[in-house]
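Consider the following assembly input.
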Amino acid sequence: MMLTIQKESTKATIHETSVDRKHHTIVVGGGFGGLYAAKELAKLPIKVTLIDKRNFHLFQPLLYQVATGTLSPADIASPLRAVLANKKNTTVLMAEVADIDPQAQKVILASKEELSYDSLIVATGVSHHYFGNEQWADLAPGLKTVEDAINMRRRILGAFEVAEKEPDPEKRKALLTFVVIGGGPTGVELAGAMADLANHTLKDEFTGIDTTEAKILLLEGFDRILPSYPPELSAAAEKSLTALGVEVKTRTLVTNIENHVVTYRCGDRVEHVEAKTILWAAGVKASAMGKTLADRTGVTLDRVGRVTVEADMAIAGYPNIFVIGDLANYAHQGDKPLPGVAPVAMQQGEFVARLIESRVKGKPAPKFRYRDLGSLAVIGRNKAVVNWGFIRVTGIFAWLIWTFLHVLYLVEFDNQLIVLLQWGYNYFTRKSGARLITGQYLQVMEEMEGIKPS
Amino acid sequence: MMLTIQKESTKATIHETSVDRKHHTIVVGGGFGGLYAAKELAKLPIKVTLIDKRNFHLFQPLLYQVATGTLSPADIASPLRAVLANKKNTTVLMAEVADIDPQAQKVILASKEELSYDSLIVATGVSHHYFGNEQWADLAPGLKTVEDAINMRRRILGAFEVAEKEPDPEKRKALLTFVVIGGGPTGVELAGAMADLANHTLKDEFTGIDTTEAKILLLEGFDRILPSYPPELSAAAEKSLTALGVEVKTRTLVTNIENHVVTYRCGDRVEHVEAKTILWAAGVKASAMGKTLADRTGVTLDRVGRVTVEADMAIAGYPNIFVIGDLANYAHQGDKPLPGVAPVAMQQGEFVARLIESRVKGKPAPKFRYRDLGSLAVIGRNKAVVNWGFIRVTGIFAWLIWTFLHVLYLVEFDNQLIVLLQWGYNYFTRKSGARLITGQYLQVMEEMEGIKPS
């Protein structure tokens, strides 16, 4: 059955006449790649459909601030329909894509409906990778979705709440031990924000525990944290984290997680740490659409399941199927694939939109060239590291750059002013307004209190 | 086992010497009653413990704005620890009270720990009442907690999303039909906000459906909505709702909810309406602590399980156990019990704190006298009704009063300015920033799409 949306709508009739419906581009995924592609495509005289499982775009770089109670999910999320509301040639569908048929040029939804496309852009991103230890997923949750962040927030804040009531010093110590696995930007930002929470925000709010005694451990397999940054910035970040009280352990590989005990190998030594809160920031793997594309087109996947793309983001042999953002392995520039960061996805999305424009309008095809805008990570309340190639900035000045850029890119968001106000308020009062333990809170509390087995 | 928090803390030693620990008051519940009691008690030279299952106080009167995507949960919630952080004689415990022992003057937590009290204030409020049809709870969720609001938001927004993809006009109609059961303030405010959502906020965001065709039905058993208000205000509210497109049915009793069909009796007629979204705002019953108190003290409960209290809020025969707020049936003033609204709870909380002060300091006991500050309900975007006894206000002026008072009482909250900004933004742009479908979204979507049975 073909999906016949817009059939009975009078609005749709207006669309039919006002845009060239000969070319229909379907974009799957409303992250940075998909949204930036859709926004560019919406300017063209073609029909555009954006499909996402969720009804909102998420500003993932700030998700750690939801996990640590500074921002609310809605502060960093924007309804896709609201962002694209004035694009009259664009339809937004909240749906799951179950399969594609590249020969018939169709996308098949989980609800069995089918949609025909002329061009297809797949931008479904990545999820957590536990490197074959999928049983760790519940024990050491990761941070990719709003639900992940709410779950982390519940665990982090819940640990302090349960510690407040715990008379046994050993058990209290385990409750006040937090292990972050993975020293990339997410792990570094999470550890820094947790240190700030324990040392400042929560400091005067408990009577039975001293929250500044909380131990925050950051474990990284490489010989330094932020391994994708220049060594001097890694060193600066480690120094800042240590000053905040975070214990940084590099060359450290986690070998087991069980019964709230993390076992890790640090050189030749095997060590254990008992921690009620263990957070995963160690690796990513491609979303399921990667395998679907491989099955249907024979395209090569890399070792984490990302799709190898041509120099124009298309799949070999399928010039009208593009993969962009974190799901794409783009190795046509420099000596390694482009990193899985927002600027890459945004530039790829805009590039593919321009490529489709050139085809629709019969113009010469553009060439993709990634402009490296640098990379940056924030550490705690007022430190950051910024890598702009020759210019490397650390400390409070880097933090100001980070703040400016993040608010600038939140320009998509209604909430820009509100986020700035929240930050200002949190910064000057050291309070955090979004510290709610919600969702399956009873379950997590009982597990931490030992009433229920984990 | 006695709970020995504070034993090893150096902070606790400071407390021991600086406050008179002879009198320990335990407050159970951090709603309006419990929080206002705790804040007053914190000024006295006694020890205070506030116990709540949640780590935050919730400004429940605005919960419907979370359910309809205007505000975030954190905008109307404040961590209890943050509110009481500078009260050094006050301990906050996130815990569930399982039982009380009035003879031994102990509170027993779910985790088996026991706490001794000299005075006990119970303020655990009420939950939904389905009048013996508890199977309706999942089909027609109510609105008391943050999770309830997120659940409602998911259903309301999800219905529009699924309708956008639905080719069958009959099924689409059921998806765009919303039934609110109960015409008290919550039902009225919810129906008004939903009408605003359908007629304005979502209007230009869909291409396959016309959201203004959504049917919103408000069912009330009495002969008028807002039955606790003067008839002229009920009439004004009904007129405003009708102008917004809400279909108001009074003298209407729901007799069944099954397979997304609501059956109701309206006079002699029995009617049915198919609706994928059914919301419950019809009744409340006492929380479980009511029965616990009855079992342990023999106190009388009313027909919805509320605790009958003496003129000083104490339980007959137990002058040191008080029940306040929605859980209390206080019938010592006027011809019926005081209503279950925030001002009653706040005044009772402050009164009991003053009563305990008089006992600790050996002063004459105060007498409770409820000051009726009036009642008010908002209808849609810029209308309200306000009842101040002789002065009755409707329309936009009432809405301004409502806005002013709600922001005034949010003074407890860090978020006051942010809520004002959100409102201002939403008011002038008719957007709503917090329209996220989160939590068990796949489950609800599949149920609405008919992929999974409900």
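The CA atoms of residues 42 and 87 of chain A lie 6 Å apart. Ask yourself how this observation constrains the way the partners meet.
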